[in-house]
Amino acid sequence: MSDPTTTTYDDLHSPAIPAARPIPRDAALRTVVTALESITETRIVWPRGLMNPGGPHRRLRGMISPISIGEDECLVFRRLIEVVRPRHAFLIGNAFGFSSAYIAHVMESHGGESVVTLDSQAEGDGLRCARIAEQVAQTLGLRILTSRHGTSPQDVPAAATVADHDLVFIDGLHAHPQVTDDFEAILPFTIESTIFVWHDYWVPGVPQGVAAARARGVRVLYLPTSCEMVLGTRDAATFNRLRASYPEAREGLPRYGRLTALRVYTQIAAAYLIDQVRFAMAR
């Protein structure tokens, strides 16, 4: 399985991120990583972070994507769950189940009752990813986690099992207007204090989705994680709790052009090809 000290997507193919202390793994993160790597071979991506210090991220061996959230971003969810204690979570986008397994694992130990994911299985080898996600959930015995195959926005109403989700993670197709459609689809199944989380703010489509949420009264905080996260809620008291819980966050949002995404996508493709060549030469 993968060696977390090995840089197969090495730092030469990611933006210049200064050396930083390794992200400390909590028990849940160690458990999820161990379960994933007992099932399939992974590769480390951006070991020091992408847009900001953080990471590492993972992809499945032989796939250029999907790429998981960073370990630093898992710890953002831990802090959120410890502070807010969400009962019901809805995740749009699941890939091979790294983030959903972590969220469900931590929520189970903090009174959580349900985590539902909706994934179209359109990225990479979607069926293989879904099978691995299911195996990870079974290995960990995640009783509150349910993974559904479907497409947002049309399948959100059928997948949403409750009307009062406390936590929503939008991490599906990063394109406009898809991110906005994801938000609008799940909005009827939320309450004023629901916390919305977006990932990969640097990718076109995500800023537009966040802007649509702000137009609906959602106040947001930008977190300088590896791939940039945005947290938001419509409830003033909940927003103040988030602001107190994340002193590193800011209310101002960065601005990016499409060249930023093009540059990163080019780096991903180049590093993947180099990794494949190294693998072929080693055989």
Are there runs of 5+ residues with pLDDT below 50, and where? 1-16
**Rg, Cα atoms, Å:** 18 Å
The mean pLDDT is 89
What overall geometry do the principal axes of the alpha carbons give? globular
Which homologous superfamily in CATH is the superfamily of the largest domain?
A: Vaccinia Virus protein VP39
Structural class: alpha/beta
Distance between the termini: 16 Å
Name of the CATH class of the largest domain: Alpha Beta
Largest sheet, spatial ordering of strands: 5-4-3-6-7-9-8
Number of contiguous helices: 9
String of helices and strands = HEEHEHEHEHEHEHEEHH
Helix content: 25-40%
Number of strands: 9
For the record, the count of structural domains works out to 2
CATH architecture of the largest domain: 3-Layer(aba) Sandwich
User: CATH topology of the largest domain, anyone?
Assistant: Rossmann fold
Largest sheet descriptor: 7 strands, mixed
What do you see in this structure?
The protein has nine helices and nine strands. It folds into two domains: 11-67 and 257-282, no CATH class; 72-245, Vaccinia Virus protein VP39 (Rossmann fold). β3, α3 (98-108) and β4 form a beta-alpha-beta unit. It is globular and about 55 Å long. It has helices at 27-39, 71-84, 98-108, 126-140, 156-159, 178-186, 206-215, 236-245, 258-282; strands at 42-45, 57-60, 88-92, 114-119, 145-149, 165-170, 190-199, 219-223, 229-233. It has 283 residues and is of the alpha/beta class. 48% of the residues are buried. α1 (27-39) packs across α3 and α2 (71-84) runs parallel beside α3 (98-108). The model is unreliable at 1-16 (pLDDT under 50). It starts with 26 loop residues before the first helix and ends with a helix.
